[in-house]
Design a protein that fits this description.
Layout (H helix, E strand, L loop, with lengths): L1 E4 L3 H9 L7 E6 L5 H11 L14 E4 L8 E5 L14 H7 L1 E5 L13 E7 L4 E7 L12
Parallel strand pairs: 2-5, 2-6, 4-5
Antiparallel strand pairs: 1-7, 3-4, 6-7
Length: 147
């Protein structure tokens, strides 16, 4: 767990992005406005994306490929997905096989969530502070970049 100011979001995101590998899945949970998209955008910037990444709220899945980023990344927002059965239509298994994946609202995956997904949870602490907690699968214990 770490507490951070909003202006530290990009630095935290860069540390996580630096250890991302193809096949990695990062789940981002928290209330509306907690900073899930902000953290995902920070990771995309750290991977080389220039300009603002659009929120995938309406597209559900937004893809980024080299040379725009260092490795293929699918940014997924499951906020509008009410039924875990609809996940099959999104092609998430194929997207994961092609690169890394950042998933907002991963709890909507239900039992379809991968066992080796990193779970990040963001809580607000006042207007300009956040608390980040995580649950790491076994394969991440030695490479997790945060204290």
């Amino acid at each position: 767990m770490i507490d951070y100011a909003l202006d530290e979001t990009d630095a935290i995101a860069a540390r996580i992005a630096a250890v991302l590998r193809p096949g990695d899945v990062i789940g981002l949970s928290g209330d509306l406005g907690a900073g899930k998209t902000t953290l995902a955008r920070g990771m995309l910037r750290a991977l080389g994306l220039v300009g603002e990444a659009p929120s995938p709220t309406f597209a559900i899945v937004q893809y980024y490929d080299p040379p725009d980023v260092a490795l293929p990344v699918a940014h997924v927002d499951l906020y509008r997905v009410d039924d875990a059965a609809a996940l099959a239509e999104l092609g998430l298994d194929e997207a994961r096989a092609a690169g890394a994946m950042l998933i907002e609202w991963p709890q909507r995956m239900g039992n379809a969530a991968w066992d080796d997904m990193v779970w990040l949870h963001i809580d607000r602490h006042g207007d300009d502070a956040r608390r980040l907690t995580w649950r790491l699968p076994r394969g991440w214990k030695d490479r997790w970049p945060l204290p």
